[in-house]
Amino acid sequence: MSDIHDNKSHPLLSQLEDAVALQSMSNQQLNDLADEVRDVLCTLLEERSAHFASNLGVVELCLALHSTFDFRHDRLIWDTGHQIYPHKLVTGRYNQFMSIRTKSGLMGYPNPVESDYDLFMTGHAGASVSTVLGLSSGDDILGQDDRRAVAVIGDGAFPSGMVYEALNNAAHLDIPVIVILNDNKMSICPRVGGVASYFDRLRTNPIYTGLKTGVSEVLNKVPVFGDPAERFLQQVKEGVKAGLHGGMMFEEMGFKYFGPIDGHKIGLLKKYLKMVRDIDGPVMLHVITEKGHGYEPAQSDPVYFHSPPQFKDEISNATSAGVVEDDSESVESLPATPPATSPVAARNYTHFATDAIYEQLQSRSDAVVLTAAMCQGNKLEKVRDELASQFFDVGICESHAVAFAAGQAKAGLRPIVAIYSTFLQRSFDQIFQEVALQDLPVTFMLDRAGLAGPDGPTHHGVFDLGYLRLFPNMAVLSPGDGLELASMLSFALEHDGPVAIRYPKAVAPEIQREIPSVELGKAEVISKGTDGTILSCGAMLSESIVAAARLADEGISVGVVNTRFIKPLDEDVVSKALRNSSFVVTVEEAALVGGFGSAVMEFAEQRRINTNHVRRLGIPDIFVEHGNRDELLAELGLDADGICRACREMIDDKNRFSDAVVQ
Ligand SMILES: Cc1ncc(C[n+]2csc(CCOP(=O)(O)OP(=O)(O)O)c2C)c(N)n1
Questions:
Q1: What sections of 174-302 are H helices per DSSP?
Q2: Which pLDDT belongs to residue 624?
Q3: Mean per-residue pLDDT for 50-58?
Q4: Residue whose C-alpha is closest to residue 446's, from 474, 477, 411, 410
Q5: Each residue of 395-406: pLDDT tens digit?
Q6: Which of 609, 473, 472, 600 is nearest to 537 (CA)?
Q7: Is 398 a residue of the active site?
Q8: Ligand 1 proximal residues by C-beta, below 6 Å
Q9: For a 10 Å CB count at each end of the chain, is N or C smaller?
């Protein structure tokens, strides 16, 4: 791991004990500090993959905020939280910074356990305006109305429906809340939609373009406190009335809107921040930044540099036009463990899914695919570019995506909703009402279903079985290897009702065998055993096969079932396993509460089958920390070792139980 501690090139950062010190720094010092922050970010990327361009883009904004506010007392929320790195560096975490995104190291997102400067643990976009408004409301009621509450939200996150719910409520409450719109023209890919076009129009405002020098002259005289600030505000407002102003939409919603201003000029930012700090009501400051600012390759290719692989290996061939071996929101090195039974192609589930989607869209004109701003993560660029009329990017609007797909399905299309497991949580109610209740043929492709690795608890997709299994009409599938994925998608598009297919962020093994066709509620029996049965859910199959092979070497005969369907279960296969095996182990990369093992137990209860001999392996009732997926799986007992251990324990238990009976 690179050492930044002794780095003489960070004289300011290495001495900085607390962000409050920024308040007494000159603009020149803050600019020097910005250079040091960028240097650390580049050093980090030499070490490992991380969110990069977004962080480079907010350096000046972050420093200006901390030099204007005291966030030990005031409130600051970075929407989503992927651009939190400069904030971490100036809030006492410089020394631990190089541990970021490693197990037991700093999180790549805000984490209140690390620092009081991080108020919420976040990773999902679009919630910041609501939480900041709530903080301001709490402070207001509790008599702490000298505290100021600031949300920094990107233009990519801004179209989220929740933002408008919060803006609406803020205008009604009319309490101080500062929303900073960080407009860099980008989501992960270039942002799309009507809100994006509106922001583009706002950029033509003379305050930003500098056409009306009168305005910038006024800005140079910005006073700091009290009435003069009000007077300045009045002057700016006069400018507004004189036709300089954009932001009417926000003004009409009850916000005072300022900007857009250059988000890389610390002095200018501080002036505006001081002004909005003293306004007694909802205010929006529109700041223009450049994603990747300060590092030329990231400036020219912010899509690739959103979360690129580590520098060492990849920087020379970095281009967003080419295929990036990224399997993330953030990239992680690909796990190596092959299933013992087969050769492995180093392709991950996402690649199999993308190919299957492309083929379906090519062969069926009624099939369409939807993404919620994750074209790159879902590797849908080829579909977007070659089959544009069947491709829909709705922005970071997962709830809308699902209801929109329901409408398309009702109209006769076969929509495929490609949303990561964790983000689909946003659409719980639309899955219920618009899709399942209507029994509409919408197919959900849930990538990152399982442990999402270094992104951590905000991104692990481990709750989907719980929330999908709930709904009548819903079929829930998970492929045991890459080869099954395409057949599962063709099944889904022929099925007359909603289907969800979940798969993890992992290399997809190709288990060489005669693959039976996918039929509703039919499992695949991989091997039979005389002692016990492993009921494997989805990607746990290869580890289950490895475990069974190892146990066979020890003289323990364990069969393996690739259950394929979590709902409906293959009642015949599951009931035979429960009745005929002396023990059954269920294995899933999902929360045990409401998951696959729970489904097996519920089924056993319905059939009045004893379950003393059943053991469920999966994610216990905790939020799993960040770390490499393999490390996390091993720790949770969800690798071949863990499965073997569980099987041996079941045999020991059985022996103890028989001894007790004999006595
Ligand atoms: C609900 C949700 N959907 C999708 C994502 C994945 N995601 C992470 S960052 C990002 C882009 C955010 O764009 P913006 O807010 O403009 O920030 P920028 O990276 O441009 O600074 C997306 C789509 C997410 N974190 N949360």
A1: 194-202, 206-209, 213-220, 226-239, 248-252, 266-277, 296-300
A2: 98
A3: 97
A4: 477
A5: 999 999 999 999
A6: 600
A7: yes
A8: 54, 57, 80, 82-83, 123-126, 154-157, 182, 184, 186-188, 291, 329, 372-374, 396, 398, 423, 426
A9: C
